[in-house]
Amino acid sequence: KMILWGPILLSIAASRASPSSSQYIGDSCEINKAARYVTSDTQSDAKMLLKYPWHVGLHHKEKGDARWKQKCTGSLIRPNLVLTAAHCLHEYESLRRMRLKDILITAGKNKKNLYDKEAHQQSSKIEKSFVHPLYTAELEDMKDIAIVQLKKRFVVSDYVRPVCIKRLSNYKLEAMRARTVVWHMMRDRHRYDDNNTGLIEVKLSIEDCHKTFSKVHNDVTAVPSFYTHDRFCAYHPNGVLPGRGDSGAAVAVPDGNEWYINGIVSIGGDTFTIF
C-alpha cells in the first residue's frame, strides 16, 4: 500500500528528477472515460490500453541473454517517473540490486512481449532509482515500493498518460471499487495462464489482511510477519488474481470522476494478493 509513504517518495523523486514543476504543465493525470464503465470481474480486449494508459512493463536483461524479458510492471506517475515494487529492481535469487542498464521501461503496450511492436509503444532506460529506505528483500519484501526516473521522458497521449496520485480521504478499505490490470493471470490457485498476451482487467475485493489470512488458514492469528500496517490484501477464492510478472501493477480506485493509484501489487499466494 502506498497512501502513507508514496506521496513522500514522490516528492523526493520529483524534486531530484526535475528542478521545476512547470515542465509537467499539460501532462495532467487522468483516465479515458471508458474506464468508468467496468461491468465484469475480468475484461481483456484491445481497449484495455485506453482504460489503463499509465500501465508500463519492466523488462529485464538477464546474464547471458541478449533479449529483453518482461518481469514486472509499474505505473507512470509523471512523464518521466514510474512507480513500481522495490523487488522489481532486484535479482530474483541473489536479491542484489540490478544494474539500471539491465532494466527497460515500456509504455503504450497491450502485449507483454517487447518484440511485438505496437503503434503507441515507447521505451526508455532508467536514469535513477529511489527505493524505500526501509525496504528489506530478506523479510518478504517489506516496504516494497520504489520510483524510477526515466532517461527519456514519455510523450503523453491517450495511450500513454500518468495516473493520478494523492492521499484519499474518507474512504473505507472494503468499500473500495478497486481494479488492476495484469499480463500474467492466475486462475484456480496454482494454475497460471501465460497463454494470454494482452492486458487483462481484474476486479479486486480489497480487505484487511487479517481477514484474508483468517480465511486462507482458518486462523485469525495466521497473519505472517511481512504483513504490516501499511499493506492491504485481496482475497481471490477460486478466482482470478495477478500472476508472476505482475508485481508493481497499480491498484486503481475511483474518487469522483477520476481514478487514482492507491497501492501496488507486491506479493501473493494461491488465493490472495498483498499490496
TrEMBL record:
Record's keyword terms, sorted: Disulfide bond, Glycoprotein, Hydrolase, Protease, Signal
GO molecular function: serine-type endopeptidase activity
SMART domains, per the entry: Tryp_SPc (SM00020)
Family in the record: Belongs to the peptidase S1 family. CLIP subfamily.
Pfam families (UniProt xref): Trypsin (PF00089)
Signal sequence region: 1-22
Coiled-coil intervals: none
Name this protein carries in UniProt: Venom protease
Biological process terms in GO annotation: proteolysis
Peptidase S1 domain ranges (all copies): 24-275
Domain of life: Eukaryota
